[in-house]
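subagent[fold] <- orchestrator: predict structure for attached chain, return tokens only, no commentary.
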Amino acid sequence: SSRYFFLMLRRPPRFTPFPYTSLFLSLSLSLSARHQLSSSRRPTIIHRIFIFFWFYFCIIGIKMKLKKLDLNAMMEAEQKKRKIWKLVLTGGPCGGKTTGQARLSTFFENLGWKVYRVPETATVLLGGGVNFADLPEWAQNEFQENLLRTMIQIENSFFALAEASERNCLIICDRGTMDASAFVSKKDWEEMMFKNQMDEVDIRDNRYNQVVHMVTAATGAEEYYSVEHHGTRVEARDEARERDRLAAEAWIGNPYVDIIDNSSDFENKINRLISAVALKIGVDIGDRLNTNAK
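subagent[fold] -> orchestrator:
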């Protein structure tokens, strides 16, 4: 028993609620064994003290363990309550994306959310003097590859900001990763994925929580289609419809796509956008979108 006690001093067992409570047990066992060899009297007061302290530290160890578990559970529950919603707005030209971003931002900010708006990477680059139509095919593919990498890096910066925030966050991406595939051939896109070690399913289905396609006004609201007051929009109506079709096809396979068409007037189109996003997030909008709502 003495040998057992000294072994416990060197390495206490891991199964005890509090590591060094085992020392009290081993010492009490040692004293008990020696006492039984020497006499048949009842346990001494020292023996009882050691047993008392062993139970005392066992109880403390159990309470500390339970407290730690409760704290972890509370942290996990709080983390689950906080939401980070990554939304892509895509579609053809003159579909209402710019207005939709502004209205979504206002709506969710009024609910106490933090809203981040990721700028359209293509607009940033094209606004620097790039004329995509004048580029040779190899340069167009290289431009799209650089655009995709730049887009991912910009988005990741906003995603990191949302993770660091303690508030609910809505991240609105003006177009997403798969939109780049609408401007290159399938073969070139697959080569781009391989070269950059990207998985199409991953960047299409797992990167965002929701994708909303805003149908161009050139389809269903032709009288409202315009290229005025837009520095990078030069598409005629037929070309706008084609761009819209390609943008829609780029996200085929994603299970979280909503399509907002032009079956209503523009104001209701934007309200349908807000409703679609709020519904997916699980936010009860009540009558906030009614004309007379305050």
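orchestrator: received. Logging for downstream: Residues 179 and 247 are 6 Å apart (CA to CA). The longest helix spans residues 45-81.
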